[in-house]
Recover the amino acids of this structure.
């Protein structure tokens, strides 16, 4: 073939430019399928995020009570009961620290920490989240300690009666 003959030939095209399908709806639905898959996967991940990701922390089984407007406080103490029913072990968490309620030195350290936080923040309220197995004696001990360091209002955290733990 000479150069003139090659110049007169039409340019080669691939199949996409030469073939046009009669029905375009079918092709647009197929083009949307990967995007629809992506949306469904994202929806599934967002929907199950709370169940799949483990949240760090301590599980507290709060007692049920009718919900009343509570007291907002930045001072929060959490009491957790462990051990056996015959010999319970009480642990109190305050300001990211753990205190054993059966240890006198630990309770002295807690009293100092409560007083220091109250002075730093100027807060006069404390919220206590106590496990339902916590005895009144333990609660009264913490309430008395809080009053001794100048905390005037104490709110006990509860679980609303209409919600099951």
């Amino acid at each position: 073939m000479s150069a003139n003959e090659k110049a007169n030939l039409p340019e080669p095209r691939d199949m996409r430019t030469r073939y046009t399908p009669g029905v375009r709806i079918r092709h647009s639905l197929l083009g949307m399928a990967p995007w629809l898959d992506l949306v469904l996967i994202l929806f599934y991940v967002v929907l199950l995020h709370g169940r799949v990701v483990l949240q760090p922390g301590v599980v507290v089984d709060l007692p049920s009570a009718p919900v009343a407007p509570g007291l907002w406080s930045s001072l929060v103490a959490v009491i957790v009961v462990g051990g056996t029913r015959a010999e319970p072990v009480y642990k109190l968490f305050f300001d990211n620290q753990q205190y054993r309620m059966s240890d006198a030195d630990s309770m002295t350290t807690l009293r100092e920490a409560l007083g220091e936080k109250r002075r730093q923040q100027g807060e006069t309220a404390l919220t206590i989240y106590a496990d339902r197995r916590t005895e009144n004696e333990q609660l009264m001990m913490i309430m008395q300690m809080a009053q001794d360091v100048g905390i005037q209002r104490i709110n006990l955290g509860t679980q609303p009666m209409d919600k099951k733990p």
